[in-house]
Design a protein that fits this description.
Helices cover 31% and strands 20% of the residues. The chain has 206 residues and is an alpha/beta fold. Strands 3-2-4-6-5-1-7 form a 7-stranded mixed beta sheet. It is globular and about 45 Å long. The structure holds zinc ion (ZN). Zinc ion binds next to α3.
Length: 206
């Protein structure tokens, strides 16, 4: 689960990662792709989709994971995939021209679990991500809001993929896997996984 960070990071003092320990050696070669099968309640703007794909490629390459995107509507029974995650984008994946007020304490995305086990099924709450991204924009960034929303969606979804690929409910101490991110961290030019968290995703797959 990922929330918007709107309070001082005191809770980080008490967070302890119980995930698998990170591996020290270098990263392996890119392996078989991780297939993201997505369903959208409403279509994404072209700039949003392009930037989401670009940013996701960059983030997941830190864990040597190659991502392929498929629409649920294109997916037929019997289609063979190596590694599949279902992703549902709920709400409106578009930043509204007029302000929308939402409770910022709610999650921006979450991943389903069963008996403590992380399942490959995530939901992204587009309206909350849009409000968080919009709240951090300044100056000329408003002119690129569709693109910046795509970047924010990629980081929110990559956070959930960390839980799935890392097979853990705990959070990282820094970077995309942290428990809560600020609006600025969602849209800034560069914001990555902590290398230890990226390695955790690889280790859990061994
Ligand atoms: Zn989380």
């Amino acid at each position: 689960m990922l929330r918007l960070r709107t309070w001082p990071p005191l809770f980080l003092l008490f967070s302890v990662a119980f995930c698998l320990s990170a591996r020290a050696e270098g990263l392996p070669e890119l392996t078989a792709p991780l297939t993201l099968v997505i369903s959208l309640e409403r279509p994404l703007p072209a700039e949003t989709e392009a930037e989401m794909h670009r940013e996701m490629d960059k983030l997941m390459s830190q864990a040597s994971i190659r991502v392929e995107w498929r629409q649920l509507s294109d997916f037929s029974a019997g289609t063979e995939v190596h590694d599949l995650v279902l992703v549902k984008f709920r709400g409106t994946c578009r930043i509204q021209a007029t302000p929308v007020f939402l409770d910022e304490r709610g999650p921006m995305a979450f991943t389903h679990t069963s008996d403590g086990e992380v399942l490959p099924f995530s939901e992204v709450l587009c309206d909350r991500v849009g409000v968080a991204a919009h709240s951090a924009m300044a100056g000329g960034e408003f002119g690129h809001r569709d693109e910046l929303l795509g970047r924010a969606l990629a980081r929110v979804l990559a956070h959930e993929l960390y839980h799935i690929k890392g097979k853990c409910n705990e959070h990282g101490r820094s970077g995309v896997a942290r428990k809560a991110l600020t609006g600025r961290e969602l849209i800034s030019r560069t914001f990555d996984f902590d290398p230890a968290d990226a390695r955790r995703m690889i280790k859990a797959d061994d």
